[in-house]
Amino acid sequence: MLKVVIADDEARVCQLILMLADWDGLGMEVAGVASNGLEALELVERLRPDILITDIRMPGCHGLELIERAKDKFPQLEIIIISGYAHFEFAQTAIKHGVGDYLIKPIKREELMATLEKLGQRCRQRNQSATEMEQLRRSNQETENLLRLRLPLDILNQRLESTAEGALWETYRFRPESGLYQPALLKIDVPSGCFSTATMAVIQEKTTTIFQRELRGVCGETLMAFQAGWGCCLLGFAAGEQNAVRKHLRSCLNQLLAQRSMFGAVEFSLALGPAVSRIGDLPASARTARQVAANRLTEGTGRLLEGIPKPTGWDRSRALEQYRRKIERGMEGLDGQLLDEAVEELVQAGQAVPHMQGWELSELIISAGRLFLLRPEIENRERLKQEFEAACDCCGRGTELVQCLVRLQREQLEAAGQRRHNDAIRPIRMAKQYVQEHYSQPITLESVCEVAGFSPSYFSALFKKETGEGFAKYLTHVRMERAKELLQQTNLPVSEICVQVGYSDLKHFTQNFKKETNLNPGQYRKLYG
Questions:
Q1: In this predicted structure, what is the pLDDT of residue 468?
Q2: Whole-angstrom distance, CA of residue 184 vs CA of residue 274
Q3: What's the CA gap between 461 and 88, in Å, rounded?
Q4: CATH match of 2-127 with 3.40.640.10
């Protein structure tokens, strides 16, 4: 029997949990009940339960502190948190600490039983020492589940090849039945980098649970898989159940919207493709659903989106050509204002089109980004293209989509400016290195310009601009610094030092040295040698 500890400062909630669950049927026993966090932590340490059910807010020891301390001592402990809608911000933190699932007050028997059964299965799989036969069976089952979940993803990604019954079974372990099939695409919009893999896993698991529970009575087949912010649910149902399915799908979306504050900055939208009778028509239906999902950019998130996309007929080539010309001037002149104006004018051109569709806006911005990345100044184009399009796919609003393009332009403008600056100062670095290596030899401006590859007049102006001093002054400074070292560290005569630092005239050397240090070489050696 698996051991369970219940912790809640309301005795009636503890009593309700005790009464709702069929503990014997679950193969579990309630080993202890606590009325506060400290008492719960003591029970966990003493009884070492498999599952802890706890309120998120309790006196004595806050629910978050209890979870953190319990998981620190017993990492394998499965935890279910109880949360009200007003406490979602605490639940978000709890999920990050490794909570396995959550229940929302008032607690419902069906959800409690399903959650306990799921976590109980996890515990048993972890605790039992499986035999080789059990391991093989589990492996085969997992493989079959993975094969089945490939089907909705291949439909989403237009990779469905043969739709013959034998091929579907061999590739996906899927047998088609009579009736209708429909793809429902859940778009999960999250700011890039905001959610951890663990948080996304909880969202996906909760979503799958909601969809499977809601659609169980009307759909004979419900397969749901996730990929990069998309949840693709493949539905199979009788021809007369289409309206009922739509009603249950709306309920699924409403439940997710009600719980989204649990996760933080996340938006949900649900797009439906047309119902079809042939498996082979599903990729086209999913393509339609994906276009329809883009309308959240103009209509807003949190909606059930459906229908056949109707293009406005707007030819965006002229607007993109104007954008191209403006970014060309902006990049050549490293003018960030011009680049921002190019985006603004592009968006204004799109907004002037009556009834602009969200998918048309998305295609406009992505096309502009691809056009921008063709600029010769841009490096690593393919990687930047993938990153840009992935960031666009995470946007739930048109303004966010536009900002992706603005951000791309600004980042690449800065990179191009830095490369151009590096190219400009490269001959200066070469000249300085040449002086450091040849200061003891006769050096002229012309000889250095041969190394740098510039004319004397241009090089002189460039050198002064980048270093703040003329080339002759820099050469003298390098020679005087070396002379100081020789005067301090050696007993060489001043005349020998004069030659070693590139001077043939002792008087000229002495004049320059005194001008640099306000001392002649002999005085400098007495003071610092």
A1: 86
A2: 9
A3: 64
A4: no
CA distances from 15 to 7, 33, 83, 111, 141 (A): 11, 9, 17, 17, 38
Supply angle C-alpha 105, 18, 209, rounded to 5. Answer: 50
Phi, psi at 371, each rounded to 5°: -65, -45
CATH node for 140-279: 3.30.70.1130
Angle at 271 between CA 265 and CA 273, to 5 degrees: 160
Mapped onto helix, strand or coil, the DSSP state of residue 197 is: helix
The DSSP element (H or E) to which 93 belongs, if any, is helix 88-96
Altogether, the residues listed in the chain come to a count of: 529
* Cβ atoms 260, 266 nearer than 8 A: yes
231 bridge partner residues: 186, 226
pLDDT at 193: 65
User: How far is the C-alpha of 274 from the C-alpha of 180, rounded, in Å?
Assistant: 10
Does the domain at residues 439-528 carry the CATH identifier 1.20.81.30?
Answer: no
**pLDDT < 50 stretches in the chain:** 130
The pairing of beta strand 101-104 with beta strand 221-227 = unpaired
Q: Which string of DSSP letters, residue by residue, matches 246-298?
A: HHHHHHHHHHHHHHGGGTSS-EEEEEEPPPBSSGGGHHHHHHHHHHHHTTHHH
pLDDT for 137: 65
Specify the pLDDT at position 130.
Answer: 46
The residues, any chain, with a CB within 8 Å of residue 13's CB and separated by 6 or more, are 55, 82, 105, 107
Domain boundaries, the chain: 2-127, 140-279, 317-418, 439-528
